[in-house]
Amino acid sequence: MSFIRISRSLRLRLMLSLSLVAVVIMGLTWVLHGMLLQSTAREFLAGRLAQEAQHLLAEAERGARPGDRSGGSAGPGLDAFHHVYLVRRGEQVVASTPSARIPLAPYLDGPARQTIDLTWQGRHLLAWRERGEVDGQPVTVLVGEDFAQVEHGLARLHRWVGAIAVLVSVVLLGLSLLAVQRSLRPLDALARQLAALRRGEREALSLKTVSELDGVVGQLNEFVEEQRYRQARSRELLANLSHGLKTPLAAIIQALQGSKPLSDTRRSQILHRLHAIDEQLTNELKRSRIAGQATGQRRLCTEDLEAMQALLATLYPAIELRFEPRMSALTHLPLERQDAMELLGIVLDNAAKWARARVVVSSDRPECVIIDDDGPGVPAHQRALLGTRGTRLDEQRPGHGLGLSILRQMVERYRGEVRFEASPLGGLRVTLHLLSK
Question: What is the pTM of this model?
């Protein structure tokens, strides 16, 4: 169990990632340093060999033998500067070392001013070939120096640089560990605040250290607020049911326990109260099922809307329910699925109840739904009362006026707005504006 916990550790993952990055960077740097060091050394040595080759050409122009220090040369002897050289003038080839004349003579042929890598007597030489003209005759100079000693020094320097790079990597990893520990402190603080929130010592999270956690903290606070709202709503539901059902139930129990036979009028009153209790229970349960915006449940699908359309067709067979531009536009409503079903059910049921022949549902944006009916409509001075709990503008139809109240409460829970206006069809237009997440 502890191994699994360690393998899931964010600190460990960050350290492994940083270690891998450090190793890759230092490795590439070390390889590039070796290549750059080799190239720099070759360029430096080639430049010096080119100067020596030009010096030999100048000696030949003055008529001095190459390497002769008594020929009036102002410069030092060439033997101090190189390991081997060859000078070809016409058909004559002169070498600083007799044993180098035959094996190195073929390298005198080729392009002028060129660096050459060659092997002589088991040693790696870096040579420079220069070509000129003296007294009308072509002169070719080849100057070479033992590059193995230089490579040995470069390899030693390269190893030292590698050792320093390893030491720097270790120091960087140590500093990275401290930086990771410090950077993860906000997570520890968040865990402590969550524990305090669970114990009831805090009402919300407050973390103002790193902006990357703002979204997480905001969503957690929204979730906590949603849970707090649900708890208050449950208590309110119980209080409403207790207050609304206690008196009617007591009257019914008293009537049923009486010794006198029930008259038709008394029986009708009891039945009316039972229907009222049933409707109140239904509406309060609808209200309690509002999930809210922070639930993150899936949204409506076309099958849900088709089922709702079939149900309304059964309840109101004379009413045509039409969706514009198409039914699938409502599947993008920023509502939890059950809440969307409840909300559309309330407003469509209310529209179909009052419509004469048709109800039109239109949605050109995911956060906006418009429901029109061709019913009698509602006078302008009474529209502000729609959605007020318990308010009924027409007593001719059954109900307690709770449907539109629940509708308004649901829309407000989603930080939206509901508007009641005159419909172009002649009835009522209900416009739902919802906050798009």
Answer: 0.44
